[in-house]
Known about the structure:
By secondary structure, the chain is mainly beta. It is 5% helix and 30% strand. It has helices at residues 11-14, 41-44, 133-137; strands at 3-9, 28-34, 38-39, 52-58, 63-66, 74-80, 84-87, 95-99, 119-123, 129-131, 144-146, 154-156, 169-171, 179-181, 193-195, 203-205, 215-217, 239-241. The strands form 4 sheets. The protein has an 11-stranded parallel sheet with strand order 1-2-4-6-8-9-11-13-15-17-18, with no helix packed on it. A 3-stranded parallel sheet has the order 3-5-7. Strands 10-12 form a two-stranded parallel sheet. β1, α1 (11-14) and β2 form a beta-alpha-beta unit. The chain is elongated and about 65 Å long. 29% of the residues are buried.
Amino acid sequence: xxxxxxxxxxxxxxxxxxxxxxxxxxxxxxxxxxxxxxxxxxxxxxxxxxxxxxxxxxxxxxxxxxxxxxxxxxxxxxxxxxxxxxxxxxxxxxxxxxxxxxxxxxxxxxxxxxxxxxxxxxxxxxxxxxxxxxxxxxxxxxxxxxxxxxxxxxxxxxxxxxxxxxxxxxxxxxxxxxxxxxxxxxxxxxxxxxxxxxxxxxxxxxxxxxxxxxxxxxxxxxxxxxxxxxxxxxxxxxxxxxxxxx
Length: 246
């Protein structure tokens, strides 16, 4: 994909008209050091020729508002000071990545307005816990949830036996989990890859019943044993990673 890169751009002083002069055959807009505190409709209204936006190394950015009429399919924010985000109902965005920011809510409530979201990555934030009910109730198209390298110490699973989630990959490595009940993930019947490596896990309870499961990642924790005897079957599991435990 062809891309256009802007550096040290301050739209509050220079305006947004520069985007009107970008060749229409570019599909990715990269902005290094976006020098405004807010990303909102003023930017997205000028992006109709782009499918992907990446904003990085932007210490001024603190707020994000994605409007309903935005047509981009991918949005990445890397190394910002983002602490607040709001998403209007939008049917275009499919990939959302926020990494290395002080965001402290695992899912801003409005992210459930992104009904066609397929991949959500929230990494290196201040997120401390997660309740996955919204995966069943709202983001039914989501296939990949990557919440590596946060501060998550506990997880609450769906309050039902099964749900219609399409989730196939759940990554929660390098967090602060100490105890895990695998039944928190059992409602995700399409799940293929569950990786909770490099936490502080001392005990694992419960079992997973997903027949689609093929990889379990438990490496780098504080486990002294794992009991699979009470599992009826391991289905299609081809790899279980348990290195670097006790």
